[in-house]
């Protein structure tokens, strides 16, 4: 497997992390996501990590990097489905997922992204977004 | 990886196939999907296979089997994202995906499932569903 599939759904891109991430795969994912945000104008990136038993500093950096690049392209990154044990480890290690929102599951994560989209449809999105940051 | 994550979104369950399927993984996926349909009352199962370069008879049987079990539990199975080369091979091999609808991508697949859901909300779903079969 040399590419992780990216699913487009409405204004969001959904990625499920299922395999062990290595350097090249992480880079490819970031590139693919960036290209797809640019092509589709997606406003949200949802990364589902329920299959991950470990989120180490490598994965953490990858997520933060994806979020940073997506933000520049005006898309918000939401990580969904983190296992409780992973959350505990993240806090214990002091790893901070800067610029990333988390959601308990995909449904809530999509709700976050949809809320942003509908805020913008109402024409006062930029104001509200600021409050959330 | 011993389990493929299943994402619940609205009335649908979404599965992305990213890894090589083997016997045990296919069985586990079928069991997990069945349990999740029963638990969540999902009415559609969307299987995204854009990462698959080959759909052989093993994968074909797995998809057909998932669709058959889901149908008994009143959920419709849609396969999305099939590569053109895979489609050609399927036809050449004479593999039939009985009971499975296909969609070009996740967005269209979800639209198929949503159409079924909203038909049922209108109170005349069962009639319309028959026409499609």
UniProtKB/TrEMBL annotation, chains A, B:
Pfam families: STAS. Residues 1-113 form the STAS domain. CDD domains: STAS_RsbR_RsbS_like (cd07041). This is Anti-sigma factor antagonist. The lineage of its organism: Bacteria, Pseudomonadati, Pseudomonadota, Alphaproteobacteria, Hyphomicrobiales.
């Amino acid at each position: 497997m040399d590419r992780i599939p990216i699913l487009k759904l409405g204004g969001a891109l959904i990625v499920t992390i299922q395999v062990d991430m290595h350097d090249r795969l992480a880079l490819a994912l970031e590139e693919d996501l960036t290209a797809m945000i640019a092509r589709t104008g997606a406003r949200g990136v949802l990364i589902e990590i329920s299959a991950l038993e470990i989120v180490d500093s490598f994965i953490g950096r990858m997520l933060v990097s994806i979020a940073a690049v997506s933000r520049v392209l005006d898309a918000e990154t939401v990580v969904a489905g983190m296992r409780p044990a992973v959350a505990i480890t993240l806090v214990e290690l002091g790893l901070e997922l800067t610029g990333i929102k988390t959601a308990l599951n995909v449904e809530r994560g999509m709700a976050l992204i949809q809320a942003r989209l509908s805020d913008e449809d109402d024409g006062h999105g930029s104001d509200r977004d600021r409050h959330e940051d």
